């Protein structure tokens, strides 16, 4: 397997591979106590919207979709104003970041987050934001390693009973 991922916009032709990836990742997340995603979310409709808006990116390894992330602008629920950042400042926000369990350890999440930095810089944005479930230990280690600072904990009305940790990275 090539160790150099190709990062590109997702297309509708990628949907079966993306949905299969999510289908493999969600049960493992839930088995480890991370209930950030439900068995029905994220789903095809959400990914179709991401693709139509040109927000969905994939990382390919050896010609196969191996990771996915939606890179959006300030697409955050009102509860995100509770985080320790300026909610009025435009930011590039990472959502629905997932790596196929079979390809973990190849730096794919890092490659997609680096793509977020490139997009933010191209668009003149100075802030990158992301959140993760309080039970997702892998991302809680990854984000600070990539220069993100912990920006607080929030609760989301759409996911009652869960706690989310917010992270922000400032670009120079």
Can you walk through the features of this model?
The protein has 172 residues and is α+β, with helices and mostly antiparallel strands. It has helices at 15-31, 44-52, 108-122, 137-145; strands at 6-9, 56-61, 64-73, 92-99, 127-133, 149-154, 164-170. The protein has a seven-stranded mixed beta sheet with strand order 1-2-3-4-5-7-6. Helix 3 links the parallel strand 4 (92-99) and strand 5 (127-133). The radius of gyration is 15 Å and the shape is globular.
Biggest beta sheet summary: 7 strands, mixed
CATH class: Alpha Beta
What share of the residues lie within helices?
Answer: 25-40%
* Structure classification: alpha+beta
Count structural domains: 1
What name does the CATH topology carry? Aminopeptidase
Question: What would you report as the Rg, rounded to the nearest angstrom?
Answer: 15 Å
The multimeric state of the shown protein is single chain
What is the overall shape? globular
Largest sheet: spatial strand order: 1-2-3-4-5-7-6
- Name the beta content range: 25-35%
Mean pLDDT: 92
Distance from N terminus to C terminus (CA atoms, Å) equals 35 Å
**Low-pLDDT segments, ≥5 res:** none
Task: Name the CATH architecture.
Answer: 3-Layer(aba) Sandwich
Number of helices: 4
Q: How many beta strands in the DSSP annotation?
A: 7
CATH superfamily assignment?
Answer: Gcn5-related N-acetyltransferase (GNAT)
Q: Please provide the ordered H/E string of secondary-structure elements.
A: EHHEEEHEHEE
């Amino acid at each position: 397997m090539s160790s150099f991922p190709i990062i590109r916009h997702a297309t509708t032709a990628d949907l079966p591979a993306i949905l299969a990836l999510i289908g493999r990742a969600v049960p493992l997340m839930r088995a480890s106590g991370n209930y950030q995603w439900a068995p029905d979310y994220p789903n095809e409709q959400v990914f179709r919207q991401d693709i139509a808006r040109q927000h969905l990116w994939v990382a390919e390894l050896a010609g196969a979709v191996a990771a996915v992330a939606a890179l959006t602008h300030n697409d955050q629920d009102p509860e995100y104003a509770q985080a320790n950042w300026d909610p009025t400042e435009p930011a590039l926000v990472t959502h629905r970041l997932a790596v196929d369990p079979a390809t973990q350890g190849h730096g794919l999440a890092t490659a997609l987050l680096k793509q977020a930095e490139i997009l933010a810089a191209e668009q003149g944005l100075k802030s990158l934001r992301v959140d993760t479930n309080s039970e997702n230990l892998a991302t809680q280690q990854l984000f600070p390693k990539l220069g993100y600072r912990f920006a607080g904990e929030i609760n989301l009305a759409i996911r009652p009973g869960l706690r989310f940790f917010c992270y922000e990275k400032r670009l120079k």
